[in-house]
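Support request from a user on the community tier.

User writes: "When I paste my structure tokens into the form, the page sometimes reloads and wipes my input. The last time it worked, I copied everything first. Here is what I submitted, just in case something in the input itself triggers the reload:"
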């Protein structure tokens, strides 16, 4: 039996592609090398930020508006809460990347964002200490997604919509010379009319035909217990994303006893060659940078609670790669999410499955093609 669509890699993005493909009635199969939902790729660590006033580029905003709607629909279908609105405080230098980018996207797309001085921001959010000459932007509509639960919900509903899910099954290579694509997996041959590669940090090995270098970075997540009650979600602590001369750091309020204040560095990261042998130990230089940031921006005593390692798959300009394979229009690539892709999983699931099934390439995706000429 040949499938209409094979989705290779069922993590953050692939799980959503599989779900949306199955929902259209297509005969879809997901092939995942591990047992989902797992912590060996890029979609684990409890939470992910979702926001609309996108500093990275205003062209992401129309996708985000639909992403919000689709996450809400997924919550309804799955019967579980996946999103929590907390608001997000972003701050940095007046000529930095983050706040000017947020304000640009907000202005172009008429999004509600409060522009604040550092002093005003600290009066409203006294759990933070900001440099006096920085500016801030507060986005009320931002919040976080429960990352593993989102992946789990997409996969469960995909299977309920008759998708096949082959877990613990690895794609070794494929042959696209015939009418059907023959997928050679470690559990035998699977045939499909079309395929999507959503393999995250494993994408570089499949990129020989695409002229776009990718770098995989090891990234760390840290959770802390704080004696400052104002860092609790229940006390109104928002998400934060702060830029300074050292780098950019972001995080989440303490949610409960298990999940304390979460913080990570968005900038930097150490390049790795093989995601399968990722070193998961705590790294002293990363920890020192995090603790310097925490000392400067927070009050009270912070005790390190837990740590996780994850991977960013970086393109050169940090914009996603969503494109058809240059030699075969039956094969789609969706990757290079550069550390900011998860919030888009819902909408990319819909639009990438639609394109890959041959049902039209949404205009909003075209700025993410490998050869796209983006206006900054
Ligand atoms: C620390 C950290 C913090 C982040 N914070 C945010 C955030 O706040 N907001 C946000 O929007 N984004 C964030 N991101 C980015 C976001 O999480 C990722 O962009 C997104 O989860 C990537 O999803 P993916 O499907 O590409 O990769 P993955 O979820 O890793 O999925 C790829 C899957 O492919 C499978 N696979 C690979 N090769 C094969 C093969 N040959 N055969 C079968 N299966 C295969 C893998 O096992 C894996 O399950 C963060 C990322 C990290 C690491």
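"...and here is what came back when it finally went through:"
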């Amino acid at each position: 039996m040949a499938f209409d669509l094979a989705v290779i890699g069922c993590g953050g993005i692939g799980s959503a592609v599989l779900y949306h493909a199955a929902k259209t009635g297509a005969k879809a199969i997901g092939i995942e090398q591990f047992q989902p939902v797992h912590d060996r790729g890029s979609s684990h660590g409890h939470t992910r930020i979702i926001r609309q006033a996108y500093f990275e580029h205003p062209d992401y905003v129309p996708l985000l508006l639909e992403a919000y709607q689709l996450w809400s629909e997924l919550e309804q279908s799955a019967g579980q809460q996946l999103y929590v609105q907390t608001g997000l405080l972003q701050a940095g230098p007046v000529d930095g990347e983050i706040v000017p980018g947020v304000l640009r996207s907000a202005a172009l797309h008429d999004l509600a964002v409060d522009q604040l001085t550092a002093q005003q921001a600290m009066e409203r959010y006294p759990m933070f200490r900001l440099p006096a000459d920085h500016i801030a932007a507060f986005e009320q509509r931002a919040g976080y997604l429960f990352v593993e639960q989102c992946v789990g919900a997409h996969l469960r509903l995909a299977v309920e919509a008759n998708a096949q899910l082959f877990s613990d099954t690895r794609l070794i290579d494929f042959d696209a010379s015939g009418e059907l694509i023959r997928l050679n997996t470690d559990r035998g041959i699977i045939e499909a009319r079309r395929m999507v590669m959503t393999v995250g940090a494993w994408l570089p090995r499949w990129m020989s035909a695409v002229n776009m270098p990718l770098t995989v970075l090891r990234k760390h997540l840290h959770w802390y217990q704080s004696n400052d009650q104002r860092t609790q979600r229940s006390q109104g602590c928002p998400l934060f994303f702060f830029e300074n001369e050292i780098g950019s750091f972001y995080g989440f309020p303490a949610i409960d006893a298990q999940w304390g204040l979460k913080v990570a560095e968005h900038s930097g990261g150490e390049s790795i060659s093989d995601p399968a042998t990722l070193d998961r130990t705590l790294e002293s230089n990363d920890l020192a940078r995090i603790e310097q940031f925490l000392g400067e921006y927070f009050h009270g005593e912070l005790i390190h609670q837990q740590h996780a390692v994850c991977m960013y798959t970086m393109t050169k300009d940090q914009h996603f790669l969503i494109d058809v394979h240059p030699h075969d229009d039956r094969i789609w690539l969706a990757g290079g999410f550069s550390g900011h892709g998860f919030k888009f999983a819902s909408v990319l699931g819909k639009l990438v499955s639609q394109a890959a099934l041959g049902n039209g390439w949404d205009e909003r995706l075209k700025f993410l093609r490998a050869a796209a000429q983006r206006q900054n």
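Agent notes: The reload is a front-end session timeout and is unrelated to the input. The CA atoms of residues 217 and 269 lie 5 Å apart. The pocket of flavin-adenine dinucleotide is lined by residues 8-14, 31-34, 41-43, 45, 48-49, 170-171, 198-202, 219, 221, 264, 310-312, 335, 337, 339-343 (CB under 6 Å). Escalated to web team.
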